[in-house]
Amino acid sequence: MVNHGVVLKRPTGTIRAWLISPKPAANATGRWPDATFPLLAFLPLPKKRIRKYAGPVLAIALFALAVRLLIREAHQITWDEFVRGLTGVPASQIVIAAFLIALNYGLLIAYDILALRYVARSLPLRRIALVSIAGFSLGNNLGTLLAAAPIRFRFYSQWGLPPGQIVALISVVGLTFWSGWWFLGGMVLIWVPIQLPPDVTLPFATQTLGVVLISLAILYSLVCFLWRKPWPIGELHLRPPRPGLMFVQASVAAVDLLISATALYLVLPGDSVVPFAQVLAAYLVAIGVAMMTQVPGGLGVLEVILLTLLKGTVGDTVLASVLIFRVLYYWLPLLAGMIALVGYEIFSGAVAAREATGIVIDPQRAADPAAMVGSAHSVDSGHGADSGGSGDQEILLPEFQDDNRPTGS
């Protein structure tokens, strides 16, 4: 009994499977017949199934745990304290917080602009704004896998981007957030350590977490400066962003986090005395953990962490402030994003119907076959221009490399 390494050829890669079996006889071409390996088809199934279900199961378990902890903390807050927290926030501060959140969602468009820059594609700003705002507003509430990624796939594929570039684009959008979180979170947690409640114990101090985050940020910077070879990630080969793009990524994400933390600070009760740096540090920890758990919208996770880290300084009224922030930052943009999507679909359908009707029933064009041909060509040309025009042509990508792209012309 000996081991034989077998490489299974697939359209996009290979799988090496090791079997313990008698050595089969090679045919005239020197290859082993496929019939001698009937178990190969079953080898990838366990890992695929584990990867497929492990994430959702873990997210559900963490969500249930967060809800349980949140309910336990909420039982310690009286109804009068909760109402005082809701009514204790000045209306002017809520309006300013809502304005900052609207400004923040406008800044989120830069995430997609940078990702398109990475894959060397260009689209009109109005389209980038649509897919970015819709993707973030729905993704922040429903999760990346359920909303943000499908929305980007749907629109970017419609506008001429191939699947490989869309996957790379989505990866860069996520990397932009994490790069800013590493830089800003590392600096804040090192200089502003969080005072944990007595009943909360961690195996390491928050300053240690800050050192870890800033180390990741430095490592990411070094990779972008020194490493130019593509890394195999799934079926793609992606190069690290260039240093200039990396610095812009971290800056955009850091400003994004600062604005959202400021909005949270503004909806705290007016009589609370807490430094902004402490609210910022608590928010960075909460949003980072919420993103890592993959619970849609960080629902429950964000609330229980902020409540735990801020109730010692703000008081029990912080729960009401966190709920106000949830409404302003998550639920109202969700409504706006859904309205934008519905409006775009209605407008696109009306335009398509108008163009189709104009081609079919125009009597003057119907009487002139040459005019009909010209009309069809003009519609096709308009559709191509609508899909991105010259910016959507296949060009050499400085950052991105797709296995399916031909290596030579």
Automatic annotation (TrEMBL):
Keywords from the UniProt entry: Membrane, Transmembrane, Transmembrane helix
Membrane-crossing segments per the record: 53-71, 91-116, 128-151, 166-192, 204-228, 248-268, 280-307, 327-347
Region (Disordered): 375-409
Protein name per the record: Inner membrane protein YbhN
Organism: Stieleria neptunia
The organism's taxonomic lineage, starting at the top: Bacteria, Pseudomonadati, Planctomycetota, Planctomycetia, Pirellulales
Gene name linked to the record: ybhN
